[in-house]
Structure formats: C-alpha cells, structure tokens
Design goal:
The protein is of the alpha/beta class and 361 residues long. It has 12 helices and 12 strands. An 8-stranded mixed sheet has the order 6-7-8-3-9-10-12-11, with helices on both faces. The protein has a 4-stranded antiparallel sheet with strand order 2-1-4-5, covered by helices on one side. The radius of gyration is 22 Å and the shape is globular. The protein starts with 16 loop residues before the first strand and ends in a 6-residue tail after the last helix. The structure holds iron/sulfur cluster. Iron/sulfur cluster (SF4) binds next to loops. The site of iron/sulfur cluster (SF4) has 14 residues, from loops.
Amino acid sequence: MSDEQGMVRTAVEAPVLEAVDVTVHYPVHRSRGETVHALEHASLRLHPGRTVALVGESGSGKSTFARTLALAQQPTDGTVLLDGKPASARGRRARRAYASRVQMVLQDPFGSLNPLHRVRYLLERPLRLHAGVTDRDDLEQRLRGLLERVRLTPPERFLDAFPHQLSGGQRQRVAIARALAVRPDVLLGDELVSMLDVSIRLEILNLLAALRDEEHLAMLYITHDIAGARYFADEIAVMYAGEIVEYGTAEDVTQNPAHPYTRLLLDSTPDPDRMEFLASRTSRDADTPDAGEDDYGEPPDLVHPPSGCRFHPRCPLARPECGQAPPPRVEVTDRQWARCVLLVDPDDHHHGRTTTPEMTP
Ligand code: SF4
C-alpha cells in the first residue's frame, strides 16, 4: 500500500534518509526576475540495504534532487529527514557530521579526485577528518581494507598511484572507496557509471550491489539508463522536468510502465528484452499518427515550464486538458503509481491500453 507521501511500502526497515515534498527554485537573470523550477514537490525514501533508481533525461532535476539530499542545495520548500528528524548541515561541524552519514559519488572521478594527490592521500583524508584516525598502523590497515572493499587488490599496487595512472573503472572504485571511508549509511550515486566503458559499468554496478548488501547501505542511483536501473535497483522513480511522474518496483515500472514518458524512456533503450515489444508496437500501431516516430523533441525549459502536465508538449497521448491542470497521482497497483489523466478516467483506460499494448497485464 502507498502512503500519503506517495512512497511504496516494500521495505521492512525505516528509511534512513527521506525527502518530503521537496521543491527547489533558484533565480537566474535576477534583473529579469527569472526562476528555474528545478524540482517540484518531490518525495523519496531511502531504506537500509535497498536501492532507489532516479531515472530521467539530462536536465530533469535528478542531480538537483541528489544535491538536495546531500544538503549541498537548500530546498525552497519541503524537508530532508535523516533518521526521521530534519537534517541540517549549517556550520562546519554539522556539515561534517552529515557527510559522515550521507556520501555522494559523482559521475566524473577525474573531476572529483585531485590529480595532484596519490590514492593514499585521497583515502587518508576522510579517515583522518571524519573518522579521527591518526595512528599510522591503524591508518595503513584501514587504507588497505578500503581498497579491498572496492576490489582494488593487491592494495599496494594502488596506494601510491596518481589518479591519471588508473583506468576509468579503477578511478571510480577509488571514488567509491573514498565515500566508504567514513562508513556512511547512505550513498548517493550521480550517473556514476555513465562515463565508463560498457564492459566496466557492469563490474561497478555489481560492486555497488555487493557493497549495498554487505554494508547495508541505502542507495540512490541516478541514471538516464532505465534498463540498467531495472537490474540494479529495488524501486525506480521516473523524473520528468523536475517532477516524479512514476514510482514503483523496478520490475513493475519497467515491465508494466504506466506513464507515457516512462514508455518513451524504455523505447529509447537498447534493451534486448524490449525488442520484441518494440517490433510488435511498430506493427500494431502502424496506422496511428505517432507510428514509427521516435523523435519526441527536447526536454522543456524549466524557467518557463509547460502548464498542466509538464510532459504534454511531447506526449504522444496528450489531450487538450493535459495543458490545463497538473494530472493527479493515480495508484496503478499497490506497488506502483503514476501521474497521468489517462489513468484516471475508466472510459479512456481502454483507449490507453489500445495504444499502449505493453500496459496490458
Ligand atoms: Fe500525456 Fe496527458 Fe498523461 Fe501528461 S497527463 S502524460 S500529457 S496523457
């Protein structure tokens, strides 16, 4: 059953980190009084030992959401809760305390690892600053342990290397090790495999899955790759233009997508499991206006977001009323919800299924 905040209750443990109705607006061109509507009323819960994937195109607000959860971005409205209490990172001590619980790993390890420092220094720093480790032997042992945890073995091969002497996958492992150094409860990964070769991505995802299970980490996995998210995440939140438009278990959202935008994301993913569906869709929908079209335009400008459903200018199923009022959240099943008027009207539900055969159970 879903609760009032729209989260799907499938986890057994209480959330460690939670965003409640978070909105982020920030000004651009102050002289013109323009505002970016980056995030609107977004809620999400991260539970120990579980992964939520936040999926959407570039510019959909995913990174703003992660930065807000990391308290690197102040929400305009709404709250971030850690262990059920309002989180704060005001002041150096509070920032450090928060960082020792919630860590973020970024997409580009080249950008996030100082190229002038050896791996030893990069990992020692958080151990000294956050964990207060000063004893030389203890430090050495923990450094080796960290590298072993991210499968960089033997550790002595990597401890004195500079970032540029490592491969992309090894650098990302160092970035993950650095995040783990403080023994966090939450790991926020922002597109952390998207710059790696395809063959390496799976290794890093497997590593993250193993760490999540071994260390009982709560994970947010931000990606534009919904097919990859399916194999890695427990739940998927689909984000469009600053709003979560669909939420559910990874299997339900990818196998039975309810929102037209989720369908487009899946259609544009080269996932072998989807190919059969795509072929059948092309032949079944050959006489529909959108048949064969896969160019659905660009994401909207968030300074002037579309009225009503923000997806309506690109939605192949849009109706005239879609531009007038935001669609309500509709429970599709007890494990999945979406925001779309097609799911509200029982008369048109049939129409929706006719044009979206994959929505049929
Ligand atoms: Fe498309 Fe309308 Fe549904 Fe938005 S509310 S996704 S425009 S059909």
